[in-house]
Amino acid sequence: MPSGRDTTRSTGGPSRSRTYPGAPTTPRASAHHSLASHEVVLLLGTDPRRGLESEEATRRLERFGPNALPTAARGGPLRVALRQFHHPLIHILIAAGAITAALGEYVDSAVIFGVVLVNALVGYLQESKAEAALDSLRSMVHTTARVVRDGLERNVPSEELVPGDLVQVEAGDKIPADLRLLRVTGLRVDESALTGESLPVAKDETVLDARTPVADRLNMVHSGTLVTAGQGSGIAVATGAETELGEIHRLVGAAATLATPLTAKLTAFSRVLTVVILALAAITFAVGIARGQDAVDTFTAAVALAVGAIPEGLPAAVTITLAIGVARMARRRALIRRLPAVETLGSTTDICSDKTGTLTENQMTVRAVWTPDARYDVSGSGYDPEGAIERADGGGIATADDSAALRWCLLAGACCNDATLTREGHESHKAHEGPRAGRWTVIGDPTEGALLVSAHKGGIPAAVRERYPRVAAIPFSSDLRYMATLHRDTGTGTGEHLLLVKGAVEQVASLCSGQLAADGTTRPLDLAAVLTAAESLAAAGLRVIATAVQTPADPDAFGEDDLPGRLVLAGLQAMLDPPRAAAGAAVEACHSAGITVRMITGDHAATAGAIASRLGLLPPWHRAAPRPHRDRSRRPSRRRLPGRRRPCPRVRPGLPRAEAPPGRSPPGPRQGRGHDR
């Protein structure tokens, strides 16, 4: 058995396969996502219910080390100081100072060396200050993990997690290591930090093909990602540097440091300057000798000419200018480690920005509700439940008691839901109880948080979930594009069940055969009216969610194949993620600097176009076109912007735009697949 980690990779992806105490001694080449859960348990020598024994966990911690990413060796203060002298122009100045001192020109020599020292001092202080700030930020991050050891659940520091640990996760938890899932209940994970997928991913325990890429490994959760809904348990299969996040850390650390445009030009200038100065000195010396002048005097004159041609103030001027830029960035709460990074920001010509949470607040708010008989406007902002539902025709405030369709639409949004609303500073952390305290936040998906708020505004209390306890669920996925839940009605005493569904309009409508009226009767589905209403709401920049219901429902017929034709459409809820307050000013700043901004989003094309126009990214008459469906079985290809290579950072928070500078292609939203829930 190997005494260390076996870093052999399978042909199916970057997951590592290793052997552990108590595991079979035969090396395994399969990735963990391609193994059944019982095989993973045997491979890691653990127990799927009791977890590891404490003594075994201690031995593995000594063997595999702490569950933490290795810190880069930055060197001591001396190395940081010496790095400030590592530049061709500085080398020239040092040589010039030494030659000047050898010629007895001590004042000139002192000036040259003074410039070199000032330049080095400014760079050293800035880099040391940035590293100290980064260290203080790292020291503030302390996470814990809920593990089962000796058959008991306990909280341990994430650094003490070892391969084979049985880890429990739930909504709001940060995944502490790479886990192979054993059991899940409506588990969804935000993997944007690892894969770039902006929406939470539904997880399950299904065995996958060994060639499945990381982004599609639904039976795995990875270190550094965040649980947004549900709960689950899994076996830690990789910790520390062996995780997928650790692999990214290793690749980033191995990447070569690229020169910025300014440093590249200074390096080239230094080389040219060196050649020119040496050539002039040589020509001066040769001409002097040819004219019969004294060799020593001629050499002294040639050296003096060379030293005088060196721009001693250039390095200091560049360093001080960059330091001023760093100071300005620091006042805007931006941390710069190296001075040349400021110049890179100034060279930016294109910015690719996410929409949700970057250009917008990422606090969804339901603005409109549509039912087959009426349309309603919803007041309020963010996740604060203060507000009301008003009839769009001026009929006053409406509640769930006024319309059966409205009631079931709001009820489906509240119960077919995994999110929880909390209030900062409120001990109970219940959504609608107690006095007003701090800011309202959502644990889970922002879209589901908005549906909870709209239900409360319509008079449906948070306790509605207690009356309709959930019995089973079909989690949302990007393939299904809907979520379905089965509930038992405890209020009637008859034990009846009801089926609630929410999701993309087209998908939910395809499952319905009728639609609800205000008086509770069912009429044939008017699909054209539903789609027209959805397009009208989406054109206003709103994200549209459809809701449907079946009551009473058959609990024995609850599956994906059982839903089509059994549901009744209750209505649509349309929500808005409001733009950030500073977006307009950022657009003006970008355009005045000649920067092109592109918005990247997976929203519906009409929604994306409306948001882009509102932010100034597109003219009002522009229509956004959806991007063709992407085959996720293949890795995305690397695509370049048209024209010459140029810096194009993907930033957060993003900056919007109004019109493109002359000669550039007009920017706009880049569409991905729709993920309306």
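Above is the first protein from milestone M3; the second protein from the same milestone is given next.
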Amino acid sequence: MKTQTKLRTAWLAGSLALLLAGLATLYPTSDPKLPPPRETPASDQARLPGVTWPEGLRLTYAAAYRSDDMVRPIVDGQVDRMVAEPMQSSLQVDLTLAFTGTGPGPNGGALVRMDVVGCEGGTLTAVGQTVWTGAEACAQTLGGHSLLAEVMPNGRVHEVYDDATVDATVRTLLQQLLLRTQVSIPRVLPAGGAWLAREHNVPGVASNVYRAETEADPDGTWHVTRRTTGYHQLLAAQAMAAPPRVTAQGDARIALDARGVLTEVDGTESLVAETTGGVVFQKGQTSFAFRLIEQVETQLAVDLSRYQRRPAHEVAAGHDANARLLDKQIDGLTLADLKSTLAQYGSGGTVPDHARFLWRAAGLLTKHPTYADELLPLYRAQKASPQLKGLVLDLLASAGHPDAQRVMRTALADDDALHSESGAGRQLFQRMGFLAAPDEHTVAFVEEQYRQAHNGAEDIAARRAQMTAAYSLGAVAGKLADGDEDEQARAHEINQMLVDDLQATSDPKLLVHRITALSNTRLSSNITLFEGLADHPSSRVRQRVADGLAEASQGAEAPAGLLALLEDADPLVQRSALHGLPATPLALERLAAVAAAGKIAQANVRPTLSVVQKGRAAHREATDDVLHALIGAGIEDKLSRAAAYRLLEM
């Protein structure tokens, strides 16, 4: 199966993946999931200059980039107690960048080469370790390097090109800087001067609202603002059973001259993501600035036949770069150190300097795949605690290569963890769902374990084994759904198996678990099935249905079943519907009607305000309607009432 390079070290290396591999690419504004702009007569529409990179013109920018990220691994919507400390990374860099237009690209855009012509200073750190720092190191690392890209007329970077001779880490950093200059500018200004764009950036998939001045300055400069209003998906939350609560805010100023040349891109973004239980598992602060300081005519010829091309959102790969990065990550840890530390401290699930140890150990297992077999005796030891076993499996899952997956399968089969009488034993099996890229042997193993559990005796222990296997099988299908065509077909095959079992289930307690397992696949094909259960007599079933509909719709327009659950008489069901509700005009209109009817439970006023806050920038009138309806129906909590009035004033 296809290797997912950017998630090579899985969730345990999540902080560095967010820093280096969560690259941004804008979706077209014609994305069918977004409402189309209102049409006005052509005579009333202002024409924007678009974005141009003129051939033969070298544009030099002063650039600054800052990011600080924290991420914690998630297990079933909870912070994993095996990794109590957060994993942090940061990048700070000040550069002088030159962008030179080299002519038309093969897809109708402009070919542009970005060169690092100066490096004033910078620092890259990951999990407490400094990868490089200082002006000299910055110049040695990035100075003199370049990246070629095709930029479309609306400002989106379509493809990047390189000859693979440059260090892959350097190419990734340059790609991240390049993609921060992206904008999405329509040639015709929509009515009201605002439009929407769905974006992939460092944390995941964001929703942005663009707004332009309806007239240019006297010197011909156009001013555009971009506001990030929320996130539909997060890389760090892919394995969560229930949608997280995400608070995101970003603002950027963009300026284009009369020709369509970018003269300024200056922005900040903050992100806080937490589980439904209120545990923060991801935080991030980012700022970036690009200011045009010089324009010089020049000629630069490029022979594309010398370059390899890839989509703008794909991360550069390179064995040498990965090896150097792994050496930094390992920081001298040896196999003997790894085994002795686990043997001495692992029984409690934590070791001294825990987060850094896990980071180094994951790197060691990634660099030396055969070391995975050395952990099997520790797992099999007679006195091995569930905490130690979980720690071993976590390390193997973080490495994720075929040898690590083979050892995981062997350990779980020998231990018969799936049929353990203890919950801790069954939780060990769920580590199979943590793998970022399960191979065909792992998929077959999890599927077979599910079949055996499903066809066994129908006692309580067998049911628990069935549900544990179902959770993992659903998570595996969810990973396959992000792969190539063959993997996607396999995901739908597994999904149908879970669907068949759900449809054959009538016991509400068992139904709750089957819905959860099916939600893990995150496939939109399950929406109709979930909607058919939205009026189930059991409130626990309806609550899981709300979570499943949110997962299956993945931030697009709210399905009818999810909208219906906003009126559910059970506050917990209504809360789940609110947590999964996207801030779209249709959803806000329905929410306003529910609030006006007095059907929002007092305990759910705050989640309702969170939905309003997400949609405030893009849909002010619709969110005003929700707030007025909420206030009119009465808000008992003084703090919530004050927060509603503050939102009205924003």
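Note on the second protein: The longest helix spans residues 460-480.
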